[in-house]
Design a protein that fits this description.
65% helix, transmembrane helix
Length: 144
Amino acid sequence: MFKKPSLMLRITVAKIFGLVVGIGWAIMLTAMPQAGIFDLLGYLLWWVTLGAMVGAFGVIDWLPVLNRRFTWWLRGPWIAGWLGLVAVMLAYGDMAALLQSYFQGFHLFNSPWWFVAACALFGLVCDLIATIAAGDGKETVQML
């Protein structure tokens, strides 16, 4: 999209995508009876921060241990899924109560572990958009 790869542009694009997803997530949470204002604001800030992390990790495009390229379709879901896993492990009880209040009769989506899959999907799309808009790898941090 732009001629010169840039890390700041990459992070900005990823944060804007995270803001859009966060606003959508907050709108969805308004339908849940137990969701308070801190839940709405917390999830909004979560998606923006997750976008920033996915954007910042776009610099890493090589895995020296495996001697392989770390492509966007692996890097984005990996970092976002990992951070989603950490979030679920830290707030499992609150997430479970929130989901059980919304999906009362339908038990497939009652599990907070679906949040990890949602984060991984977010990372895939976010890293794709950031890579198209601002590139990836060491070119994003070179000054000249």
